Amino acid sequence: MPDIRLNDVAMIYPFQKVTGLFDRKQKQLILEQQKAMPYTSNEGVIALQHFSAEIKNGEFVVVLGPSGSGKSTLLRIISGLERPVVGDIYFDNKDYKFVPAQDRDTAMVFQNYALYPNQTVYRNIAFPLEVKHVPREEIEPQVRKMARMLELEDKLNRFPHELSGGEKQRVAIARSLIKDPSVLLLDEPFANLDPLMRGKLRKQLKELHQAFNTTFIYVTHDQYDALSLADRIIILKDGIMQMDDTTANVYNYPANRFCAEFVGSPAMNFFEAVKVSRNNTISILGREYHLTTGQQKKIRKNTGIDVGIRGVDITIKDEGYPAVVSYTEIIESDIIIHVTVDEGKELTVVEKLNNADEMKYLAGQEVHLVADMDRLHLFDSDGDRI
Ligand code: ADP
Ligand code: MG
Question: How far is residue 161 from each of residues 116, 120, 168, 366, measured CA to CA in Å?
């Protein structure tokens, strides 16, 4: 089974031709909209650029990014459906740039299931083996094994329209894994499912990954998917990699402001353009933080720095920085306390919910905040972590 390596890969999609019933002004407008995409060249939209990464055999990597950030493009390049305009792709140090999709031993699972509507669940799962002319008697035990692993044993005679969304996606996963591919590519597979089903399928997917020892590359815009599934997260924005690190590092040491804001819920609190005093300290919620020598060196212009702190790293105590409660929310086992400080600046504080505490914070109540100064995230004016 291969390690996959991408080296300085770029993908450009040609601008769409605007033909037909548009008048000149409309055509102009459509072309301008395409050129207004974050990155374009003369030839078209740059969907991915300068992308280098190595994915080891058996890893579970999540590619996380907003819509349009190039996630599907990356999967299409790995699967061979698309050839990069620049850069190289290697499977186990073998140049795969010109190896067609059908010779790559990858399988793909899509958001919209892509099942055969007129075939039973059994036939849908068996299909990849049937096209390989595997003998019937060998197919059956494998289909039953997959059905067992994905809890579909009692659904084998049903047709796709008789299944729930979660069941359809389990059939799609069973069908992709029955070939025992060396790489499974999953393109937002749980996007159409409700949160409860997502949670259940995440767990199943983790178990399948362990059972199959196959490389899983899972693409999503959902940070919950990323944090719960990944060994490692690659963050994309506008076709450019923002971070490639372990899940813990992505959460604890976001490389830039984009990563800091995109990962974690509720979103990180931010203090903009905080002044650094002459003795290299900053003041946050009434407490001082002294910049390390490393941090001091990284500040290029003294235009102030952006300081982030997660809600879980602020505590409400008897004494501290005064704030007023706006409202509270209960999300799973957390209570999110929305407060305002100074001239209406809004912050969120997160506490664990225990039954008795539910009504502890009321709108309009004055509370006192203490920030954990070891958990600050500092970013320069370009948004890079310092
Ligand atoms: P994601 O999967 O993260 O939503 P995509 O990889 O689908 O992003 O798309 C990245 C960028 O490339 C987007 O700006 C998108 O509009 C553009 N794009 C994707 N596919 C095509 C295509 N076939 N033709 C033209 N532009 C495309
Ligand atoms: Mg996509």
Answer: 10, 10, 9, 55
